[in-house]
Amino acid sequence: MAELKEKEYFFSFQGGGWNSVYAKTYKGAMREIRKVYLKKDGTPKNPELIPLPETAKEVEKNRETYEMLLRSFY
Questions:
Q1: pLDDT at 2
Q2: Which of 18, 62, 63, 69 is placed for a possible disulfide with 57 were both Cys, Cβ 3.0 to 4.6 Å?
Q3: What are phi and psi of 55, to 5 degrees?
Q4: What is the model's pTM?
Q5: Nearest to 13 by CA among 65, 38, 4
Q6: Distances in Å between the alpha carbon of 14 and those of 53, 61, 62?
């Protein structure tokens, strides 16, 4: 069985902003978002960065949206 490749998933934060994580699957992306931004009890590690994991989308399947987000940096 072939090993899955990691893909990039972008997601939003409550109140605005976004970031991305790398994972092999959508479920893996959910776990990574929670691991990085939430404590074990589900509360945010940083109250200014509350992730919305349900907004996660695979970059390759949403290229236009991702490129628009990247342009917001310039």
A1: 83
A2: 62
A3: -90, 0
A4: 0.90
A5: 38
A6: 10, 23, 20
Q: Which two tokens stand for residue 30?
A: 């959910």
Kindly indicate the confidence band of residue 5, based on its pLDDT and cuts at 50, 70 and 90.
Answer: very high
**Residue 21: other Cβ atoms inside 10 A:** 23
Q: Are 7 and 23 in contact (CB under 8 A)?
A: yes
Residue given tokens 């902003």 in the structure block: 17
Q: What is the 3-state secondary structure (H, E, C) of 9-60?
A: EEEEECCCCEEEEEECCHHHHHHHHHHHHECCCCCECCCCCCEEEEEEEEHH
Q: Do residues 4 and 45 lie in contact, with contact meaning Cβ atoms separated by under 8 Å?
A: no
Q: For the segment 14-67, what is each residue's pLDDT rounded down to a tens digit? A: 999 999 999 999 999 999 999 999 999 999 999 999 999 999 999 999 999 999
